């Protein structure tokens, strides 16, 4: 999966399980948010950062706002490809653009944007994204990632 800037977009594979579906046999709408959360977590892991270790460093990422648009249903046993592209990098927040596609036919099922804030784990107040993490996101984002000094 390529971003518009030509950089390879991160994508996480997952499968739809019975627990993800509703009475109609399709993925319950809120579960797409869970799939996208997992992709963001795996994006961090791919960059060399583990959320449990970040908590030990008094750092949490929390969703400030979420926007999702649903296009087509996923069903039991579908394999999904969930992207997690940073499109905006601020002092204490990141904006992710994400898509969920069915692997079998590349159909776009759901897309969304998420503003994720960096906060202190002890009091939930905003804090700057650590320089190493900030650099990892900036380097992985390529030329299309905006970097803004303030929030």
Reconstruct the topology from this structure.
Elements: E1 11-15, H1 30-46, H2 51-56, E2 59-70, E3 79-83, E4 85-89, E5 93-102, E6 108-120, H3 131-141, E7 146-147
Parallel strand pairs: 4-7
Antiparallel strand pairs: 1-3, 2-6, 3-5, 4-5, 5-6
Radius of gyration: 16 Å
Structural class: alpha+beta
Low-confidence stretches: 1-7, 142-151
Principal-axis shape equals: elongated
Order of helices and strands: EHHEEEEEHE
> In what range is the share of β-strand residues?
25-35%
Mean pLDDT: 89
In words, what does this structure look like?
There is one protein chain. By secondary structure, the protein is α+β, with helices and mostly antiparallel strands. It has 3 helices and 7 strands; from the N terminus they run βααβββββαβ. It has helices at 30-46, 51-56, 131-141; strands at 11-15, 59-70, 79-83, 85-89, 93-102, 108-120, 146-147. Strands 1, 2, 3, 4, 5, 6 and 7 form a 7-stranded mixed sheet that branches. Strand 5 and strand 6 (108-120) form a beta hairpin. It is elongated, with a radius of gyration of 16 Å.
Provide a compact summary of the structure.
The protein is α+β, with helices and mostly antiparallel strands and about 150 residues long. It has helices at about 30-45, 50-55, 130-140; strands at about 10-15, 60-70, 80-85, 85-90, 95-100, 110-120, 145. Strands 1, 2, 3, 4, 5, 6 and 7 form a 7-stranded mixed β-sheet that branches.
